[in-house]
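Run log // design_07
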């Protein structure tokens, strides 16, 4: 007999699960608004059609479900055998018929949700390893999925925008992205300011810095490499390029 409710009672985790489920519902809504023919159209990601996005989001749910199964059983089941296998799977998935592609998204999302729901409270703390090689507790799988569904709903390029993404998701995404820059040392001379939240990130010590600022949704859109609408660049670094907003450093 399978439980119909989450096994965890941790309020913070339940709130995170809700955010992931809302993101999945949002992606589903944007996907359902597209006709089969429109799936062939370009996404916001270079070289990827909407088919690639949908296949990727479906296979991503399966990969994350493998991590949750790992946490549940203690038997190591990696997300993907390798990044090459993952990429090949996406290219293959993009060739599926529209109905198969839609089923892939729906079924994988339901499967992941069941794995989360049935994971016992203590197993959420078991360690698993992501494709980047990070050791994380199973709780992290919720954020990994949250960020995928919300952002890739925008990438479908049929009307969703970063302004549709809940502020707590945007804030955590920005912390992830600026953290990745810092780890790689690619944020030298760059300061990022979120004007409507009083947040700032980056290298405030440089006197030749470029200050990129704007409201939260616009700043995250820029930081994620999805365009520079609604952000401005100022400071000595920007003066040298007549205020042109620089491309954000890579983060993935
Ligand atoms: Zn992705």
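design_07 sequence
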């Amino acid at each position: 007999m399978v439980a119909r409710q989450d096994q965890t009672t941790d309020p913070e985790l339940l709130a995170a699960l809700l955010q992931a489920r809302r993101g999945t519902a949002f992606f589903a809504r944007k996907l359902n608004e597209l006709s089969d023919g429109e799936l062939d159209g370009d996404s916001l990601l270079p070289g990827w059609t909407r088919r690639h996005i949908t296949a990727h989001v479906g296979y991503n749910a399966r990969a994350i479900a493998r991590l949750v199964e790992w946490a549940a059983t203690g038997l190591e089941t990696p997300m993907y055998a390798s990044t090459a296998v993952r990429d090949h799977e996406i290219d293959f998935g993009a060739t599926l018929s529209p109905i198969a592609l839609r089923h892939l998204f729906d079924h994988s999302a339901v499967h992941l949700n069941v794995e989360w729901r049935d994971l016992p409270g203590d197993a959420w703390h078991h360690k698993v390893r992501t494709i980047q090689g990070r050791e994380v507790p199973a709780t992290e799988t919720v954020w990994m999925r949250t960020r995928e569904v919300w952002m890739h709903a925008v990438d479908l390029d049929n009307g969703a925008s970063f302004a549709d993404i809940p502020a707590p998701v945007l804030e955590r995404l920005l912390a992830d992205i600026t953290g990745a820059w810092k780890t790689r040392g690619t944020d030298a001379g760059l300061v990022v300011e979120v004007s409507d939240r009083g947040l700032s990130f980056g290298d405030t010590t440089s006197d030749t810095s470029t200050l990129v600022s704007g409201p939260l949704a616009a700043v995250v859109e820029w930081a994620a490499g999805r365009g520079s609408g609604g952000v401005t660049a100022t400071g000595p670094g920007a003066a040298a390029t007549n205020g042109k907003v620089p491309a954000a450093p890579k983060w993935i």
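The longest strand covers residues 190-194.
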